[in-house]
Amino acid sequence: MKLPYAFAKRFVAGESLDQAVPKVAALNEAGIKVTLDLLGENVKDRTTADETLSHYIELLQGISEQGIDSTISIKLTMLGLDIDRDYCRDNLFKLLDVARKHDQFVRIDMEGTDYTEVTIGLFKEAFKVYGKHVGIVIQAYLHRTKKDVEELASLGADVRLCKGAYKEPERLALQKMSDIRAAYKEYAAVLLDNTIYPRIATHDDELIEWVKTYTTEKGIGKSRFEFQMLYGLRLETCKELAAQGYNVRIYVPYGTMWVPYFTRRLKERKENIWFVLTTMFQK
Ligand SMILES: Cc1cc2nc3c(=O)[nH]c(=O)nc-3n(C[C@H](O)[C@H](O)[C@H](O)COP(=O)(O)OP(=O)(O)OC[C@H]3O[C@@H](n4cnc5c(N)ncnc54)[C@H](O)[C@@H]3O)c2cc1C
Known about the structure:
- The protein has a single domain (about 5-280), classed as TIM Barrel.
- Strand 3 (about 105-110), helix 4 and strand 4 form a beta-alpha-beta unit.
- It has helices at about 15-30, 45-65, 85-100, 115-130, 145-155, 175-195, 205-220, 235-245, 260-270, 270-280, and strands at about 35-40, 70-75, 105-110, 135-140, 160, 200, 225-230, 245-255.
- It is α/β, with parallel strands linked by helices.
- The chain has ten helices and eight strands.
- Bound molecules: flavin-adenine dinucleotide.
- Flavin-adenine dinucleotide binds near residues 109, 137, 202, 230 and 233.
């Protein structure tokens, strides 16, 4: 059964770029930067992966043409990672050629643990060639992250730190919120101390306050990092942070393939179900 888009509109900015652009412009107007995400994952055939590459390229061109302040986030499984690693790398490099031409930035989202190793490997290859035009995401809940974060920081990579959104087993990932928060703080410190501009992606007040205190105590300026949140969540907090002089970016997903993303948001927090119900019938 196809769910109507009305369910998702709290978290998804539109089913097309044209629908998302006015929302991005309004966020920019409020002093908030954006990263646009064309929704979808796990493409299984080359025709669809090639089409996705074209859509990502059009997105980069669209951002330039529309004059909005946005980078893009992508998923490697949208560029054919399930089909063949080298084919996916070629697609990623084609996209990064365009990003470099437009002086743009592409962040590779992190997916489930089946993809962690290969995603980090492809990022490292891309980073060697495209440097400041490509970034990666690290999930604090994974046991392996301690080693990854140190290695990525020593390379000077541009890292978004998040908790991790996929259901992972105990042997691979921390399960208790208190442990995940402790790990998040440890890795945020590594990134803040050692990288040029880490991205702190969370809606969690405890972590936001911790980062504010840590950076103040360490003399790390507000211009040296940014907070990131998801479209549809904590907009007032984003505006408050921006008013306090922090850099803030909102991750804005759009597109017709919103079901897996939307489902993750509902599972994450029971209050999100309430948001959906209250906004479903609004224009
Ligand atoms: C910009 C961005 C990019 C992301 N990219 C990825 C990615 O590439 N891969 C990946 O696996 N995951 C990604 N995630 C998702 C992330 O891993 C978490 O699943 C998600 O952010 C939930 O964790 P949290 O720390 O935000 O808050 P939660 O753990 O959901 O909540 C912790 C506490 O924060 C507070 N809180 C949370 N939400 C709200 C709210 N709406 N209003 C008020 N208080 C709230 C509450 O006190 C809550 O108890 C991304 C998240 C963000 C923000």
